[in-house]
Amino acid sequence: MAVGAVFAVVAGVAPASAAGSDPLAAPPKVHGPEAQVSIMAGSRPVSGSAPSAGPKFTKSGTQWRVIAPEAVLRNTVTDADGDKSTLTFEVWTVKADGTPNTKVKLTDANPYGVLVSPYTASGSLASVKVDYGVLKPRTQYMFHTNAFDGSLYETNWSPWTKFTIEPYVTFPVAQSTSGIDPVAQTTVEFTRTDPDGSATIALPSAASEPTLSDFAKDDCSKPDKQDRRVCFTLDKSSKDKAKRSKAPKPGKTRETRQTFTDASAAAAEGSPTPGGNDAVDLVDWCTNAADGLDYMNRTEACLKDLGEGELYFFDSDPQKPAIGRGTFLFEQRMKTYRNKSESGSDFAEFDQQLVIIPTYIDPALQGVTMKWDVASSCSSCDVAPIQWTDDGANPTAGAHWSYDPTSDYSGRWGTVVTRWTGTGKEQIDLDWSITASVDASNSLDATAEFGSSGIDAVRELAPRCDDITRGAVTPGCVFPFFRPTFTVDTNLYPAAGAYYWLMQERMPDHAGSKKWDSLLHYLGPDTTVKNPSTGAAWSSDDSRKVVCPTTWSKHPADPIVGSTDCDEYAPASTHESGGFPGGINQVTDGSKCAQLYTDWAFNGVGDGSTSFGLFADTRTATNGPTGSERCGRAAIDSAQNQGAFSKLQPSVWRLLDKDGFFVDTPGFNHCSGTTTTCIWRKS
């Protein structure tokens, strides 16, 4: 402190009059008059030239973006004498031309309405925190500072700096109507992990005719009495090579853009199934899916990239071309039923269908018969005989075609029904092959492998059947490989949707985000994790109590916000919840999560889409969320908190423990990140 600082405040001296409405007026003598001795002997303190506002003390353009109504204003202060000093902070609103407009009364603690920092060491940052409710969100402010070292005042103000309290996200009042279907799904394209077994022959080019020596032994029959053989292979169509090169990697998926019409198939450079129609197709939309790709959803699979079958008939000379050949297109369908209302059965059921379309049969073959072989790992299944029909849904005696030069050959549609009669749950691995024979010899047949339901690590086409799904009154089956998307209705629940979107953007694992391809995993009734206190299976209530205990207190908010609840993300019903023991995001308590809350944010401008906002709750983490938090805890409108996930019913997708799913927030997907405020859009 400068010499004579003890005289800094003289008893009985009245304070100077309050500053008026002139932003250029001299700084107020908040601490009283200067001591005369100090004026003669001391050095005046100096404010820094770069005042800042936060949290998080980051600029958006030329102004500071503040993420909480309790703005923290700061500036450096130095004193040549090394004295500790304090800063006075004065805040004004801003005119359209960028100049000061109206002075803001920050406190009643002094007649000037300014805030004064504690004393701080020379060269350090001095700061003040504005009380909640003093500053309005989405209103531009500017402030400057003036220093005092206990004896002397800085003679001028620091440079101005501008700031605005900007929420992470803004959104309107909940809409009264919405067209969003939270459980609607988009069919995906995928690539099989085990598409075929022995059918791996690389046939000669079209310019040459294959001979028996070109084929692997396993692809051909044993010789008949006349030393003739048939060879049967399955190969991918060369015309779909370019399309296949752009398909997802094996075990991965991509939402299709097709609408499953003739036009969409053509747009995808494909064609519908020849002869296909709703009367025969097990999966009605599959007929019009473009060939050369495979598709699926939670209950159906449409395999249109099985390939083309080549059947060759050879005589005894291995170096001679075939004496006859036949070519065939193959497709496959699979359909699971989630409950009795879909299957009509008291048991869980899934059906399979093979489509065979002859494209050429040489007269030397006289005719061709195909036998479909289906192998299963099921321990408790009742498998019905395969039923075959033609394109007109007329029953046929198997898959057989006699040589007929006068007309096109009709396809054959073979369907097999499997009913699961077990208890608990079972995922069923499948394996397929086709055995071909010719009428020209009653002892020749060759088999081509069609692959399996997938490698052990993926099992993309292995249906799972169960009788333990929550809310399901009858057994059912699904494809657990397909990860459904729950779409938060951001029209009806904009506050909740804003919060989930923000957490997906900021959490290290981006839990549930389709953008980041990061799944949530359901906490099902079959979990093996136990509550150590009760010995019962760990539940969503157990997780919720960790993140949102009864001791949680909500942040103050404008009364217009109404009732709010503690809402956690990731959801308590998932393994990614901060409360789930041993999970990737486990925390000891909810204070370790990102703290957020909903508040009124309307500044009188706009269409109402910015009426409310999501702000940082800085009562504990004074600088707001860091982005490294593994979970979120927010005060969200009670009705929205309770309604946003109300349609995530496990029975809809037969969700069991560790089943993956995404959460989509369409009203905010247009936003590229969190560096600027994301503004809701109606979906």
Automatic annotation (TrEMBL):
<feature type="compositionally biased region" description="Basic and acidic residues">
    <location>
        <begin position="231"/>
        <end position="240"/>
    </location>
</feature>
<feature type="signal peptide">
    <location>
        <begin position="1"/>
        <end position="18"/>
    </location>
</feature>
<feature type="compositionally biased region" description="Basic residues">
    <location>
        <begin position="241"/>
        <end position="251"/>
    </location>
</feature>
<protein>
    <submittedName>
        <fullName>Uncharacterized protein</fullName>
    </submittedName>
</protein>
<keyword id="KW-0732">Signal</keyword>
<feature type="region of interest" description="Disordered">
    <location>
        <begin position="231"/>
        <end position="277"/>
    </location>
</feature>
